[in-house]
Design goal:
The complex is a heterodimer of chains A (717) and B (329). Chain A is α+β, with helices and mostly antiparallel strands and 717 residues long. Chain A contains 15 helices and 29 strands. The chains are: A alpha+beta (717), B alpha+beta (329). The complex binds flavin-adenine dinucleotide.
C-alpha cells in the first residue's frame, strides 16, 4: 500500500488534462492586466486613464482614485501592501493601476496607455548600504531572532584555530513554470477564486478579511498548482486585486502575472550577508560558533531569513551564539524560498566547517563526526529521531569518500581539475494542524477529502496510499479531493509539512472510518477491518465478510464517512531532518566554469511513505541546489532600483545538461514524535547542503575558497 | 503587443515589394527573435512580411564553398552532410546555439540579425537604452554590464552581438548576399553588422526593403583545421559569455602557417583578432607563444569595472581554441 507508487496525476499533467487556475472557462470571462510602478519609491502626483479607457474592449481602469476600499487583511501572512488604496509607491513593480478588458490583448494594450506621474522619493535597494538595521520579530515557529548558549569568549579563548569569515548568498527568484494566476468569479453574492496557491485557506483568510466578506461567501479552489517553491505561500496583492475587481464588476475575471511581474509580485529569497566565527581545538572539537546574519526586508513589512537557525542545532558545541538583523529596502517583501533559512544558512556554516577542516588537516567528514550532536545543543532537547551518522556512512560508501586525497588540486583529468566536497544538511521540521474526511461508497470507492494543495510534490498519490494502508485496500480504490476551502481545513503546502501533517490527519480519518465500519458491521468498533473492492472483511474473533452494497442497503445508507484530525503537540523533542551531501566537480584549468559531475545524498527524514515521490523531491532539491551554487542570481540595479533581468534568459536556472548523475538514498527510520505516521518533512531538505558541498568541492579542485554564491567563473580565474 | 498587418511573401521580389510599400514593415523569418521583441514592446512594426515562403532555404555545396539560403534553418544547416564535412566549426557553432526546438525554427539569416541580449535593451519596460530608444542613454555603462563588450564599444552602447553562427562565419570569411529593388550586393559580416559609434540603434548596413538572400561561405583553405569554443555558465541553452572560432593552417613542423580568429560575446559584432592572426604565423603550437601572440589583439581591449575579467577570459578562450584547432589539446 505504501511504497513505490507512480504519480497518479502524471498522465493528466503530461496530456494537459490537469486544469490550472488560469485554465477555467467562463462565458463572461474578462481579463485584468496590471500597471506596475517603474520606480522604487514615489508619490503618484497625477493619473490619466482616458487613453487607456478608449481602447476597444476595455471595461474599466482602476487606480487609487476609484478602486474599492479594502480593510487590513488578517488571519494569514500577507506579503504586499493593500493595492490601489493610496498614492504611495514602496517598490518597483508595485501594482498602481489595473485594466480590465474583454480580451487579454486589449488589456495589455491599454496598460501601456495609462499615464501616471511620479514624484520619486529617495530609495535604497542595497541592503548592505542600509545604516539602520533592525532586530526582527520572527514567527514563533522559526525561533527567536537571537540565541546564546554557553560562553562564546571562553570557547574562542580555548581554541587552537579560530575562523572568522564572511559569506554571502544572492537574491533568487522562485520561478515556477506556472506564473501566478487568479480567476475570480462573483455570482449571487458569493466569491469563488481559482488560484495558483500553496494555501487555499491563506487566500481565503486574506481575501475575506480585506473585502470584509463573511467567511461562507468566499470559496478558494486550487486543483493543481504549477509549482510554487514558496512564491505562492503568502498571499500577495494580485490575488486581492482579482477578488476585489470581480466583486466590483460582477462575473468572472482572470488575472495572470507576466513572467516579468513574477519577479516583483510575490517576494524573492533575500540576499544574505553572514559572518561566522568557528573555533576548534587542534583535535577538532568545536568550542565556539557564532553566526550573525543580515538580510533585507521591505520598508513596509517584515520578513527575516533565519540563516543562522541551522547553526543552532548542527553540531555539539558548548558555546553557540546566533543573531539575525534585517535591513529595510525598497523592494517587494522577501519571502520563503526553497529552502528558506537553512538553505542559505548552511552554505555559510558548512563552508566554514570545511575551512576549519583544511586548517586542522582533518578530513572534513571526520571533523563532522567528531562534533556530531547527540542532543540539540541550543535547546538541550533530544532529537525526535536522528539518523545522520548513518547518512554520513552510507553517503561516504556510495561516493567512495575514503579515496579522497587530502591535498587540493590533486585530482586531475587533462584540463579538468576534479574536486570532492561534502556538507551536512539540517532542516527544521515544520508542522501544521490538519483535518481530513474519508467516505466509503457502496461501490467500494473511498473518497478522501482534505483542503490541501498539490504543487507538484505528489499529494494526490500518497494520501490515498496512507488511507489504503489503514483500510487494507489497494491505493487505486482511494481518490483524494483537495484544494478547496469547503473541505476540511489544513495548513499551507510549505515548510515540507504536507505529508506529515495532512498525512497524519488522513490516517486518522481512515482509522475513524475503519472503526465506524467495524461498529456498523459487528457492533464492535475495535474489530479489524480490511477492504477489498466491495468486500469488507471484519475480524472480531471470527472472520466475517460483508458485501458493501448489501451491508449499506441493510443499514439504509449510501455511504459511510468519518473525519479525523491531527495537531502538532509540544513534546520536548527537537525536530529536524538531516542529510549528508557529497559532490564531485570538474573545473577547467583555464576556463574555470565549475561543472557538477555527480552528487550523492543520503537523508534521515523519518518514514518515507513513497520512495518514488520522495526521490523526486530530493532530486529536484539537488537540482535546485546546483542552481543556487552555480547559476541563480537576481542582480539589482541600485540606480534604477529594480531587478535587472526579469526573464528566464537572464535569470539562469539549471538545464538538463547541468544535472549529472544524482544518487539519492534514505536511511530506514520511523519518527514516533514528529507526526502520526512516522514521517518528517522532506521537500526542502533536498536543496540544503548542496551548495556548500559544491563550493567545498570547488575548493578541493582549485584551492580557491569562494564564500559567495553563486560561484562565478571570475571567482576562479 | 500592437496589431500589425501580415503579408505572406511568395518570392523574394514579392517580399521586397511588400516591404518597400510599407515604411514600417519588417521581414519575419523564424520569428524566434522578432516575435519576442514584439511581445515585449521593444519593436512595433506596422506590418510583418513573412519570408518563409520565398524559397530561399536551400543549402548548396560547390568547389568554392557553401551557399546557405537565408531561410535555411539552423537545424537544416547543421544536419547537412556537406556542411558537416567541410565546415565543422560552423556545425559546432550552430549546435551550441539556443535549443533544438528553436533551431528548428530559427533561420541563418535571422540569426545574423538577432538583436542584443543586453538586459536593459531586453527589459519588459523601456529603460534608458540608446539602441531601443535613441538618445535615452545607456544604462549598462554605469549599471549591470558583466556581459558587456570589451571591443569597439562607446559610451553610447556597450552591448554585444549574441550569435554563435556569426562568429564561425566570420572566421570562415563568409559574405552575406543581400538584395533590394536596386539589385544585389554582398557584404562581409564586418560590413553588415555595425559598431555602435554614436548611433547604436543603426545596427546593420541593410536598407529598408533589403533582404539577406544567402550566406556565402568559402571553402576553408586546404588542410586547415578549425574549432568553435563556447564559454558559458550554463552547460546548454545559454548565450556565450565569450566564444571563439578558429581556422588554422599548421605546417609540417607543428608551426602555425595561417590563422583566422573571431571572438564572440566581446563586441557588437564578431571580433576578428587581426593582430593575433598576423602574430601567430610561424608560431609553435604551444600555450606560451600562442598566448603572447593572442595578447597582441587585446592591447585594444577596454573593459568596464564589472566585465574586466572578460579580457582574461577572452585571451584564454582564444588560446584554448587555437590549441584545440591545432590538435595540441
Ligand atoms: C531562448 C533563446 C535562446 C537563444 N540562444 C541562442 C544562442 O545560444 N546562440 C545564438 O546564436 N542564438 C540564440 N538564440 C537566437 C536565435 O538563434 C535567433 O532568434 C534566431 O536565429 C533568429 O532567426 P529567425 O529566423 O527566428 O529570425 P526572426 O526572429 O524571424 O528575425 C530576426 C531579425 O532578422 C530579420 N530578418 C530575418 N530574416 C531576414 C532576411 N532574410 N533578410 C532581412 N532581414 C531578415 C527580421 O526582420 C528580424 O529583425 C536564442 C533565442 C532564444 C529565443
Amino acid at each position: 500500500m505504501t511504497g513505490a507508487r507512480p504519480r497518479v496525476d502524471g498522465p493528466a499533467k503530461v496530456t494537459g488534462a490537469a486544469r490550472y487556475a488560469a485554465e477555467w472557462r467562463a462565458a463572461d470571462l474578462r481579463h485584468a492586466a496590471l500597471v506596475t510602478s517603474p520606480v522604487p519609491a514615489a508619490t503618484i502626483t497625477a493619473v490619466d486613464t482616458s487613453a487607456a479607457e478608449r481602447v476597444p474592449g476595455v471595461v474599466a481602469v482602476f487606480t487609487h482614485h476609484n478602486a474599492p476600499r479594502l480593510r487590513p487583511p488578517v488571519g494569514a501572512p500577507y506579503g504586499g501592501r493593500l493595492p490601489l488604496q493610496d498614492n504611495r509607491v514602496h517598490y518597483e513593480g508595485e501594482p498602481v493601476a489595473v485594466v480590465v478588458a474583454e480580451r487579454l490583448e486589449q488589456a495589455r494594450e491599454a496598460v501601456g496607455l495609462v499615464r501616471l506621474d511620479y514624484a520619486p522619493l529617495s530609495a535604497e535597494t542595497d541592503f548592505r548600504a542600509v545604516a539602520d538595521t533592525a532586530v526582527p520579530t520572527p514567527p514563533a515557529r522559526w525561533g527567536p531572532a537571537d540565541t546564546t548558549v554557553g560562553d562564546l569568549a571562553a570557547g574562542i579563548a580555548e581554541a587552537d584555530v579560530v575562523l572568522r569569515a564572511e559569506y554571502s548568498t544572492a537574491a533568487r527568484h522562485h520561478s515556477p513554470i506556472e506564473t501566478s494566476a487568479t480567476q475570480a468569479e462573483w455570482r449571487d453574492g458569493v466569491l469563488t477564486l481559482r488560484d495558483a496557491t500553496q494555501g487555499v485557506f491563506n487566500v481565503h483568510a486574506v481575501v475575506s478579511s480585506a473585502l470584509d466578506l463573511p467567511a461562507d461567501r468566499v470559496r478558494v479552489l486550487a486543483e493543481y498548482t504549477g509549482g510554487g517553491f514558496g512564491s505562492k505561500g503568502y498571499v500577495w496583492p494580485h490575488q486581492v486585486i482579482a477578488a476585489m475587481l470581480a466583486r466590483e464588476l460582477g462575473g468572472a475575471l482572470r488575472l495572470v502575472l507576466t513572467r516579468a511581474q513574477s519577479f516583483t509580485s510575490h517576494g524573492y529569497q533575500p540576499p544574505t550577508r553572514q559572518r561566522l566565527v568557528l573555533a576548534a581545538t587542534a583535535e577538532g572539537r568545536f568550542t565556539a560558533i557564532r553566526h550573525d546574519s543580515l538580510s533585507p526586508t521591505s520598508t513596509y513589512g517584515e520578513y527575516v531569513e533565519m540563516t543562522a537557525n541551522g547553526s543552532r542545532v548542527a553540531y555539539a558545541c558548548p558555546a553557540i551564539t546566533t543573531t539575525h538583523r534585517v535591513a529595510p529596502v525598497a523592494t517587494v517583501l522577501p519571502t520563503p524560498m526553497r529552502a528558506p533559512h537553512e538553505g542559505p544558512g548552511m552554505f555559510a556554516l558548512e563552508v566554514a566547517v570545511d575551512e576549519v577542516a583544511c586548517e586542522l588537516g582533518i578530513d572534513p567528514l571526520e571533523l563532522r563526526l567528531r562534533n556530531h550532536a547527540e542532543v540539540d545543543p541550543t535547546s538541550g532537547k533530544p532529537f525526535s529521531t536522528k539518523g545522520l551518522l548513518a547518512c554520513y556512512a552510507e553517503g561516504a560508501r556510495r561516493f567512495g569518500w575514503a579515496d579522497r586525497p587530502r591535498a587540493t588540486g590533486s585530482l586531475r583529468e587533462g584540463d579538468q581539475l576534479i574536486g570532492w566536497g561534502m556538507a551536512t544538511a539540517v532542516m527544521a521540521t515544520m508542522r501544521f494542524p490538519a483535518a481530513a474526511r474519508a467516505r466509503l461508497h457502496a461501490d467500494g470507492r473511498v473518497v478522501v477529502e482534505a483542503g490541501c494543495q498539490e504543487i507538484g510534490t505528489g499529494t494526490y498519490t500518497i494520501m490515498p496510499q496512507l488511507a489504503a494502508e489503514v483500510l487494507g485496500c489497494p491505493p487505486e480504490q482511494v481518490v483524494l479531493r483537495l484544494g478547496d476551502t469547503a473541505l476540511p481545513r489544513t495548513g499551507m503546502t510549505a515548510g515540507s509539512s504536507t505529508t506529515l501533517s495532512v498525512g497524519s490527519a488522513v490516517t486518522a480519518a481512515a482509522e475513524a472510518l475503519a472503526a465506524r465500519l467495524a461498529l456498523l458491521a459487528t457492533g464492535d468498533p475495535t474489530a479489524a477491518v480490511r477492504l477489498d473492492g466491495i468486500e469488507l472483511t471484519v475480524k472480531n474473533g471470527a472472520v466475517e465478510v460483508f458485501r458493501l452494497d448489501e451491508l449499506f442497503a441493510r443499514l439504509g445508507v449510501d455511504s459511510v464517512a468519518a473525519g479525523g484530525s491531527w495537531e502538532p503537540r509540544e513534546n520536548q523533542r527537537s525536530m529536524h531532518t538531516f542529510g549528508a551531501v557529497f559532490a564531485e566537480v570538474a573545473v577547467d584549468v583555464d576556463l574555470p566554469v565549475p561543472r557538477v559531475r555527480r552528487l550523492v545524498a543520503v537523508y534521515s527524514a523519518g518514514r518515507i511513505v513513497n520512495p518514488l515521490t520522495a526521490r523526486g523531491q530530493m532530486t529536484g532539491g539537488l537540482v535546485w541546489g546546483i542552481g543556487q551554487a552555480l547559476l541563480e542570481k537576481s542582480t539589482t540595479d541600485h540606480r534604477l532600483g529594480r531587478f535587472v533581468d526579469k526573464n528566464l534568459a537572464g535569470y539562469r536556472l539549471p538545464v538538463n545538461a547541468d544535472v549529472p548523475d544524482l544518487d539519492v538514498a534514505f536511511v530506514e527510520e520511523y519518527d514516533p514524535h514528529a507526526s502520526g505516521i512516522g514521517a518528517r518533512g522532506i521537500g526542502e531538505l533536498g536543496s540544503v547542503g548542496v551548495a556548500p558541498a559544491i563550493a567545498n568541492a570547488v575548493h578541493h579542485a582549485t584551492g580557491k575558497r569562494v564564500r559567495s554564491l553563486p560561484i562565478a567563473l571570475e571567482d576562479l580565474l | 503587443m500592437r496589431d500589425f498587418d501580415y503579408v505572406r511573401a511568395t518570392g523574394s521580389d514579392h517580399a521586397i515589394e511588400a516591404l518597400a510599400a510599407r515604411p514600417g514593415a519588417r521581414p519575419v523569418a523564424g520569428g524566434t527573435d522578432l516575435l519576442t521583441l514584439l511581445k515585449d514592446g521593444i519593436e512595433a512594426p506596422e506590418a510583418l512580411v513573412d519570408i518563409t515562403g520565398t524559397g530561399l532555404g536551400a543549402v548548396e555545396h560547390g568547389p568554392d564553398g557553401l551557399t546557405l539560403g537565408a531561410l535555411a534553418t539552423l537545424s537544416r544547416v547543421a544536419a547537412d552532410p556537406a556542411v558537416r564535412a567541410s565546415h565543422p566549426l560552423l556545425v559546432q557553432a550552430v549546435e551550441s546555439a539556443a535549443s533544438p526546438q528553436l533551431r528548428n525554427m530559427a533561420t541563418i539569416g535571422g540569426n545574423l540579425l538577432q538583436r542584443t541580449r543586453c538586459p536593459y535593451f531586453r527589459a519588459e519596460t523601456a529603460l534608458p537604452c540608446n539602441r531601443r530608444t535613441p538618445g535615452s542613454g545607456c544604462s549598462a555603462v554605469d549599471g549591470e554590464h558583466r556581459a558587456a563588450a570589451i571591443f569597439g564599444w562607446t559610451g553610447h552602447c556597450v552591448a554585444t552581438h549574441p550569435s554563435d553562427p556569426a562568429v564561425a562565419l566570420s572566421a570562415a570569411d563568409a559574405r552575406v548576399r543581400v538584395r533590394s529593388a536596386g539589385g544585389e550586393r554582398t557584404l562581409a559580416l564586418d560590413e553588415l553588422l555595425r559598431l555602435p559609434g554614436d548611433t547604436p540603434d543603426r545596427e546593420t548596413a541593410l536598407d529598408h526593403a533589403e533582404l539577406i538572400t544567402a550566406v556565402e561561405v568559402p571553402a576553408l583553405p586546404a588542410g586547415s583545421r578549425s574549432c568553435y569554443l563556447k564559454v558559458r555558465e550554463r552547460a546548454s541553452y545559454e548565450f556565450a559569455l565569450v566564444s571563439c572560432a578558429v581556422v588554422l593552417g599548421v605546417d609540417g613542423r607543428k608551426r602555425i602557417s595561417q590563422a583566422r580568429i573571431a571572438l564572440g560575446g566581446v563586441a557588437a559584432r564578431p571580433w576578428r583578432l587581426v593582430e593575433a592572426e598576423r602574430a601567430l604565423v610561424g608560431v609553435e603550437l604551444t600555450a606560451v607563444p600562442v598566448r603572447a601572440a593572442v595578447e597582441r589583439s587585446f592591447a585594444a581591449a577596454e573593459a568596464l569595472p564589472g566585465n574586466a575579467f572578460k579580457v582574461e577570459v577572452g585571451i584564454r578562450t582564444a588560446v584554448r581554441a587555437v590549441l584545440t584547432a591545432g590538435g595540441a589539446r
